[in-house]
Amino acid sequence: MWTSDSKLNPSVYAMGLRVIMISCLLSLTACSSNPTSSKISAEHTELYEGQPILAYIAEQQSKTPEEAMQRARKAQSEQDFDRALYEYIRAYELNNQNTDALIQIANIHYTRKNYRIAYLAYQKALFIDQNLIAAHQGSGLILLRQKQHDLALEAFSKAVALEQKQRAAQATDQPTETTHSTLAIESYNGLGIIYDMKGKFDEARLNYQAALERRANDKIILNNLGYSYYLQSNWPQAEIYFTRALQVDSAYQPGWKNLGLVYARQEKYLQALEALEQAMDTPQAYNDIGYVCLLSKRYERAADFFQKAISANPQYYEIAYQNLLRVKRLLDSQLANKSN
């Protein structure tokens, strides 16, 4: 219900790219007398995945890293992400120390859910400069998705440590790179999620609170902090943070679902139904309330809500029927134990 590097699983490097004949196309194209300065080399096509690039390589190529970056940003602003990728890779080709280009390449692939290529680009950036918060954070997000929690924790911790070092340097007026206080938000949030999974709730909340200090009205972090309290059965505190998340965005469905569940835990069934119906249809809402009652061993209440789910949609809601059979067995067992 929420929302190191060298140790990565080898499958991450299995680059199953959909680039057809890129190397051949590149070898057939020459836009100036110096081939190495007029096109992306085959070495760097591992960073590309998108539409065939013949149209791009047939055009006048960027001559400098600055020109390529400018073209890339323009294409990105126009939502032309294939062209943006091509130009960012071109910028990296012209200057193989260009970490900004690598971060942008990684970010585009991450947005497209091309996580293997995104991770590769983040790692290339970190090979050049180990002090890149965005690269550590991006790597951590990918590792978290892959359920490599210890490696993700390591990556997020590095990002947080760098961010805190920069903040301390700024506070004492020491020279430092310009940074934004929100740069490591996802790392604090990621650490919170991992610590929650490990049952280290105090550490989780410290990280969520640190994230909120940097971005006070982030609905995702507010929701995750509420869920951390929910995991410890602290229903009132969970309700507070779910409500705050919905005050930020009244259409935020995870917030409504979690608020509905915490109402059901507190036996506020009408409020639970109203909240859940903001995120799902009525039969599913009845079923979810029934399931909370089942987990809380309120079997008669659970049976009532499962029956309501079935009545609301008898053909569709097979899961409610299975849950009803389960709770009836539990009730029968409970009665049998009492009679003995």
Please describe what this structure looks like.
It is a single chain. The longest helix has 23 residues, at 149-171. Among the domains are: 4-129, Alpha Horseshoe (Serine Threonine Protein Phosphatase 5, Tetratricopeptide repeat); 145-216, Serine Threonine Protein Phosphatase 5, Tetratricopeptide repeat, CATH 1.25.40. It has helices at 22-27, 54-57, 65-77, 81-94, 99-111, 115-128, 133-145, 149-171, 185-197, 201-214, 219-231, 235-248, 253-265, 269-276, 282-295, 299-312, 318-339. Helix 4 runs antiparallel to helix 5 and helix 6 (115-128) runs antiparallel to helix 7 (133-145). The model is unreliable at 4-38 and 175-179 (pLDDT under 50). It is elongated, with a radius of gyration of 26 Å. It is mainly alpha-helical and 340 residues long. Helices cover 66% and strands 0% of the residues.
Quick recap of the structure?
With 340 residues, the chain is mostly helical. The protein has helices at residues 22-27, 54-57, 65-77, 81-94, 99-111, 115-128, 133-145, 149-171, 185-197, 201-214, 219-231, 235-248, 253-265, 269-276, 282-295, 299-312, 318-339. Helix 9 packs antiparallel against helix 10 (201-214), helix 12 (235-248) runs antiparallel to helix 13 (253-265) and helix 13 packs across helix 15.
Comma- or semicolon-separated keywords:
mainly alpha, 17 helices, Serine Threonine Protein Phosphatase 5, Tetratricopeptide repeat, 340 residues
